[in-house]
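Re: export button greyed out
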Amino acid sequence: MTRSAELPATRDRLIAAMSDALQRRGYHGVGLSELLVEAQAPKGVLYHHFPGGKTELAIAAIQSAVSRLTSALDRLIASGADPVAALSAWMAGAEKQLEKGRFEKGCPLATVALESTAEDETIRGEIAAGFAAIRDRLSSALVASGVVPAKARALSTLIVSAYEGALMQARVAGSLAPMTETASALLQLIQSELDAVKGIR
Amino acid sequence: MTRSAELPATRDRLIAAMSDALQRRGYHGVGLSELLVEAQAPKGVLYHHFPGGKTELAIAAIQSAVSRLTSALDRLIASGADPVAALSAWMAGAEKQLEKGRFEKGCPLATVALESTAEDETIRGEIAAGFAAIRDRLSSALVASGVVPAKARALSTLIVSAYEGALMQARVAGSLAPMTETASALLQLIQSELDAVKGIR
DNA sequence: GAATCTATAGACCGGTCGGTCTAGTGTCAA
DNA sequence: TTGACACTAGACCGACCGGTCTATAGATTC
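Workaround output, generated via the alternate export path:
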């Protein structure tokens, strides 16, 4: 064990610093030097672990964020809670995160998604795959609750859309209101949809 | 800095170039030189019209975008179409814009909203005000259709959230699907809400 | 213990960034 | 004709950008 116990491995510190930066300012908003100060690492170490430089580090950060999100989602779904309760819990968690980050930290995918151009093929692909993975999980959870597949897909896309848009509005407003309002309206939709399913059955 | 009714063409070209850039890559993603090539203007002219430089130009672009959006919304609402039809038309318009811009042009507010930090006070304020103005218009249109104010506010926030999130997903996916799916699920909610209102009446 | 390899360390580089500055140019009023 | 003024034009600047390079420390292998 070459490194001190309290500090995570250098590679992980770099990824964590990039993740944090992507949530706060996006890809073009951060400089390498700032990133390295945050990660307490010299420049050489970045290009040792990520020969592709800033881009490769960003991709790693995105992948790490996606796997964090999807596994949290999996856990939530596996817990057996009904969709409305699960979504409600998720939104409440987002509100807590927003407050904890003083409205400065958002979704690690969103900003980069909007900043990226057609040339940023790899990054875009990674983000698109991340969104798709999240939608798929939501969708199959809804199907498991009796929603027909086509409707489940539309609903899960709406959930992701609403979540991202709510985070965006809440951040610029510096207020939880957009998040809570979005959540309340959204939850009502899901509930009525599930009730309809039950009625038919 | 109040300005007479007639604006110099150059000023407008600068604003247009910035608007376009904000939709494609966001604030930090564009360079001044690129902007000036696009606007066919030399550097001096930028600082003549916008002494505050890049930031002031971005603010002007955002204000211009907001007034374009709100007046389009006003027109749509004034046309007397019922909320569902109006929203449906709006979403269809967004899809057309997405395709026209080959999925490279998104909302002029969204990217900057996510890139901005607490220090970018003016820009954030402008964006927050823009979102609020849009929500207010939607909300009062819903109230006019019989929705109770509190529910109308939540619903209008959800509409904006869904719209922004759908644009985001559609862009990275390079596909209209996230937009159409979001729209269909959302429209159904509004419809059922309005039906409920009618039932009570 | 020499050789090798991974990881750390930071000086250094060319290019580009946003921004300033000075020099014109065209228009209009006196 | 001249002076004032709004606007155009682009050379120029220091700072910072992402990225490369060489040096070295520590662990591992033979």
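Chain B touches chain A through 51 residues (CB under 8 Å). The button fix ships in the next patch.
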